[in-house]
Structure formats: structure tokens, C-alpha cells
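Quick one, T. Sequence first:
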Amino acid sequence: MHRAMKSQGFKSFLRQEGPWLLIAFVIADLFYKWGSFALECFGFLLTWYALSWASSLVLRVVAAKNPAVED
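C-alpha cells:
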């Protein structure tokens, strides 16, 4: 994470990952009641990763269909 923030810059990183971080946090808070901080933290991080991955996949597909779209 430190490397990603350092390479992209904090503002760019926050603009790209902030919405997915907040959505993953809400999902984890509402649905992950596993009785273990470690499991719930892992679930939150996995959810954040999955949302971020899915958004990047959608952006790549849209960009491939329409070359005028940029990140």
C-alpha cells in the first residue's frame, strides 16, 4: 500500500481507491460478524481488493471498446 501511494501520489491514490475503501468498510461493518477481528479485517481487505479489481476490469473493457476514454 505504501508503494502504491508513493508511486501514484496520495491524491491520485485516494481518488482511485477511496470510494472502494469506503464501500468495503460499510459492507464489512454491516455483514461481517465473524467474532474475530483478524477474520473481519481480512474480509474487509479482500472486499476492498475485489471491488478495486472489478472497477479496473470494467475501466479496461470500456477503454478497449472506446479508445477515447482515459483513466
